[in-house]
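// run 5 | inverse folding | seed 20
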């Protein structure tokens, strides 16, 4: 993208919005987030919530030893997480490195209900030149990616160059074409809730379809308070613009109980409209089997061994 085009993307309108970003009350955010984990959900509502959680999972493999066979296995798991008798829907997506997109597309085919997400833009550091990032995005989309999970330049953000962060997100959104863009903030490196709130606003103003907490490569990753701060940013952005932006907490969510607490938080912060894989995802492959264990218990009346389920 030319310098002139980037200048057009950096509008005074976006600057005015980011300067009006509210500060975050840390005590209230942490206390309210903790309250969602104390709710009791029983019987049919719990089972429905667990099935919904499966439908929102992005199964992920992001290792240097990934192979086409491993990606095909992940795709198979995403298509049918458990035996059909349990009535569990497919997972939302598989998330892979750009080089693995074509293998996932070959296995899933053109009309799969499971989306293919590719991490791009120099994942996980984001410390690549912009032309390299954009070329990686375009290639992943050309190979069949439905979604791009980009990482912001935390160096630029923490140095106060918020305009650069905005421009890179906007340029990446353009490079995505028809693919959806998830913007990873890497909240574990942003230090404060106020920084998370500001980064969320920048990502949404620049055109992100989703905002995402983490790469899963940095600790802390997703936490309830950080996710609440981001959900409230989405709510305020919706009230201001009428645009619905999705949310994806990623990393550190491992149990069915945690997933239900997150769903309660989404419902009470954003409402039922966001309780769909189109607007809420879990980036947590290890979560799926624990949720499946709970579903099997609810249906069969007894726990299965963890060995009963294939690894994600």
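// decoded
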């Amino acid at each position: 993208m030319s310098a002139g085009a980037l200048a057009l993307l950096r509008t005074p309108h976006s600057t005015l919005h980011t300067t009006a970003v509210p500060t975050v009350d840390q005590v209230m955010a942490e206390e309210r987030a903790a309250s969602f984990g104390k709710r009791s959900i029983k019987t049919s509502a719990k089972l429905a919530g667990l099935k919904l959680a499966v439908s929102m999972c992005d199964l992920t493999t992001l290792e240097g030893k990934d192979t086409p066979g491993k990606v095909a296995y992940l795709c198979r798991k995403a298509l049918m997480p458990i035996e059909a008798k349990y009535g569990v829907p497919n997972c939302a997506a598989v998330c892979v490195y750009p080089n693995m997109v074509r293998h996932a597309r070959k296995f899933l085919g053109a009309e799969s209900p499971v989306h293919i997400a590719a991490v791009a833009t120099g994942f996980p550091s984001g410390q690549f030149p912009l032309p390299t990032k954009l070329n990686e995005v375009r290639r992943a989309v050309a190979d069949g990616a439905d979604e791009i999970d980009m990482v912001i330049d935390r160096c630029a953000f923490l140095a106060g160059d918020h305009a650069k962060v905005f421009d890179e997100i906007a340029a990446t959104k353009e490079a995505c074409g028809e693919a959806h863009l998830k913007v990873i903030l890497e909240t574990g490196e942003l230090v404060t809730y106020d920084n998370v709130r500001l980064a969320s606003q920048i990502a949404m103003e620049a055109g992100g379809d989703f905002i995402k907490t983490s790469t899963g490569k940095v600790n802390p990753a997703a936490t309830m308070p950080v996710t609440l701060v981001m959900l409230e940013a989405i709510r305020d952005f919706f009230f201001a613009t009428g645009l619905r932006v999705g949310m994806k907490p990623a990393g550190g969510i491992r149990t069915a109980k945690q997933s239900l607490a997150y769903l309660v938080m989404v419902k009470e912060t954003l409402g039922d409209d966001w309780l769909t894989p189109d607007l809420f995802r879990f980036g947590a492959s290890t979560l799926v089997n624990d949720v499946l264990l709970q579903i099997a218990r609810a249906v069969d009346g007894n726990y299965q061994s963890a060995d009963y389920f294939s690894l994600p």
